[in-house]
Amino acid sequence: MNTYSIKPEGDGINAAAALTSSRAVPIFMAGLLGIFIVGNVGFSHIEAVHNAAHDYRHSMAFPCH
Amino acid sequence: MDYFRNIVIVAAIAGAIAGLGMTVVQHFATVPLILQAEVFEEQSSGAPAEAPAVAHEHADATAAQDTAAHDTAAHDHGEGWAPSDGIERTGFTLAANVITGIGFALLLVAASELFGGLGGWHQGVFWGLAGFIAFTLAPGLGLPPELPAMPAAELASRQVWWVGTVVSAGVALGLLFHSRSLVSVVAAIVLLVAPHIIGAPQPVSHESPIPEGLHHSFVVAMAVTTLLFWVFLGGLAGFFRERFIHAA
User: Which residues of chain A are within 8 Å of residue B107 when distances are taken between CB atoms?
Assistant: First the structure.
């Protein structure tokens, strides 16, 4: 499907050495998207967002109220 | 872009399934305790226990009832919109679980790709445990899970401490995993300990209308359900990673 796939490298200790920019950019984009999503639901100060996710925030121990 | 797309696909599938499962588990484990705490919250403000139901149903309340509800609702939901109890409230909890499940999965998959990617569901379980340590255990030591009505320091300061603690725990785990040098291990331990030496923002008084037994049950329920979520999420991410990224 693509040309970026890599084989798992042993115990993973040296795997970061295989990190190339063609892999690093998509990885950081995916990480930023994750931060954006979690941050918006878990940390929003908007009243309606807070109230909608109220039980979730308590259940995951996000700082709430 | 194929690589990015595949990371997102793996995270979306794993996060959605784990988020759905988490909603079911929370429904029986943590949410009943939150609802119990809300009763104490209402009682502590001198309002009858039924007040939450009234306060949530502004739509068909008369003006007088509405005013009464506002007067007695000490619940820190503020004046804004809130889902009504029951299906609607559970529905929004489900949405929050699925959306953040995908968000956490993106972070887990992205972090593990930096180290060569998850080599199957079993490795994913260990990454899930790492997620639990970074996102639940490390911040939870300083800011234990709270129930409604429990006293707490100012929200923004707690959020800053929470984010700082999660980031430093994540970097610490990365260092421990990446390097075997003594310097890295010492740096990782410093990163794990430092937030607790700085100290999480604490309320002026810990006096609370919530019985200690109820809070204890909630801490245990929250920790166990979150542990299950992370392990399940990691395992699923490892499983689907093999199909969408590794095998691609």
Answer: 31, 34-35, 38
